[in-house]
Amino acid sequence: MLAALIRTAQYFKVQIADKPGTLAGILAPLREAGVNLMAVHAFPRNRRTQVDVVTEDPTAFKNVAKAHKLKMQGPKMCLLVDGNDRPGALADLTDRLGSARINMIAVTSLTAGQGRFGAILWVKPGDVKKAAKVFGIGLS
Predict the structure, then answer these.
(1) Are 134 and 114 in contact (CB under 8 A)?
(2) Looking at CB atoms within 10 Å, which of 22, 52, 86, 90 has the fewest?
(3) 94 φ/ψ sector (left φ>0, alpha ψ -120 to 50, else beta)
(4) Distance in angstroms (rounded) separating the CA atoms of residues 111 and 49
């Protein structure tokens, strides 16, 4: 059995310039508005930076993004994992998806300290419902 909380979550894609300070420039207004972020994943894409943002309050995020004219797409769905860190924790998750013939299109996982780990699992939009069923969870 997995010792992890797995849930579906909404995320938004934001495109920003690939220059120093641009990520801070979008995170600061979110902080000032009290928007709590559960995960942020940023990476280069087509000479820009794509930032995937998972937030507790999608409506608040959208309001701040619109007010600051952020180029945003979404919401889209991902799987968010919060669990006990141990050898094989991520392998167990990926094995369950693979056994169900669900292809992950991306994954980010890291230790959170104090014996905890977190992960974001991305699957194709058409596979989100099937992946949720694999883990015995509902859609958010």
Answers:
(1) no
(2) 86
(3) alpha
(4) 24
